[in-house]
Amino acid sequence: VQLQASGGGLVQAGGSLRLSCQASGGTFSQSAVAWFRQSPGKEREFVAHMRGNSAITTLADSVKGRFTMSRDNARNTVYLEMNGLKPEDTAVYYCAARNQIWATRSVDDYNYWGQGTQVTVSS
Q1: Within 10 Å of residue 31's Cβ, how many Cβ atoms?
Q2: Which of 18, 21, 29, 48 holds its CA 20 to 30 A away from the CA of 117?
Q3: Cα–Cα distance between 101 and 29 in angstroms, integer?
Q4: Which residues contact 75 (CB under 8 A, 6 or more apart)?
């Protein structure tokens, strides 16, 4: 399975972006999927995940109320809708998937990774 992330860009604080992650080479409707982000000099951190074969999502506390995650199985794509963006949201965002239904917050649990898409929020 290959994952292709897109949708990043430069936005002012308070703005919105929608990230997409499309899978090819297989389907991942039954796979847990997640979004992580990484800022320069920091470790990759959990942002959101969705259980496989489900729409149940979990968000990091830092993005609750601002970000939502969704899945379109017909398009083999997951989305991260980001509203109320803050400068501290600036990072490279990665989508990931694992060969399990259960999602986790751990980077080490994911088998497949997209290439990352840069999100920059100016103050």
Answers
A1: 24
A2: 29
A3: 9
A4: 22
How do strand 117-122 and strand 9-12 relate by DSSP bridges?
parallel
| Amino acid sitting at position 61 | D
**Cβ 29 vs Cβ 53: under 8 Å:** yes
**Measuring CA to CA, which residue among 49, 54, 55, 82 is closest to residue 68?**
82
pLDDT digits (tens, 9 = 90+) for 83-118: 999 999 999 999 999 999 999 999 999 999 999 999
Q: Counting every residue, how long is the chain?
A: 123
Query: Which three-class secondary structure state does DSSP give residue 73?
Result: helix
